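User: For a teaching handout, I'd like to show students what a predicted protein-ligand complex looks like in token form. I'll give you the sequence and the SMILES for LLZGTKA7. Please answer with just the structure.
Assistant: Understood, here is the input followed by the structure.
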Amino acid sequence: MKRTRLIAALDTQSLDQARHWASALDGHVDAIKLGMEFTYAQGFSALREVAGRNPLFLDLKLHDIPNTVAKGLSSLAPIGASLLTIHASGGTAMIAAARQAIDASYPPLHRPVLLAVTVLTSIDEAALREIGVPATPREQVVRLGRLAMTAGADGLVCSAEEIAPLRDALGDAPVLVVPGIRPAGTEANDQKRIMTPRQAAQAGADWIVVGRPITQAADPAAAAAAIQAELATA
Ligand SMILES: O=c1ccn([C@@H]2O[C@H](COP(=O)(O)O)[C@@H](O)[C@H]2O)c(=O)[nH]1
């Protein structure tokens, strides 16, 4: 059975803080996620330094007209990220343009995994209805997941609750990257669709993304090691 891998989300504006976490977590995580909070504060040049030898998940969630997303992805090529995100709700033309930009701008052996974010893990059914989507998160994730994979995405960002329905609908092909992970006894914060590391691994996540339960722990390295132990015995 495949191993579920752990991505630590280092959400901070501070370069020193990000360096400190990355150094403490070295060897305890499988990849480092940096997103808009860090990138907007510190710029692109700091990304590779913080990720170090770890694969970099650059989570900027691009969502714009197809041309702008395509050019944006081309501009990101020198960073050498291993995983990149766009929003599936950008639609078929935007996702297809993203696929073309990756294929044209990145060396074949260093192409990042193009992930489409389906429904943010902070969104529940009431929030979906509020934005005019009369569906459950599960229905909407499967709908957008199918659309994104048909348009050329390599994988999807979803909550652990949708792993089984996505596998039923789309099989093993999509790389499933799963935030909204909360080890037992930790706070949900702003996340709405959550599961434990063990539950996500048992459901078939390729990667889980964990931020605050690691970064806000008294000992982030011990928190990451405990999650790895949970994944190893799932
Ligand atoms: O649907 C999504 C997509 C991305 N994220 C990102 O994952 C981490 C989760 O952090 P926690 O502190 O573990 O809640 C964060 O960087 C988000 O931007 C997500 O949570 N949900």
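For the handout, you might add this sentence: The first helix runs from residue 15 to 25.
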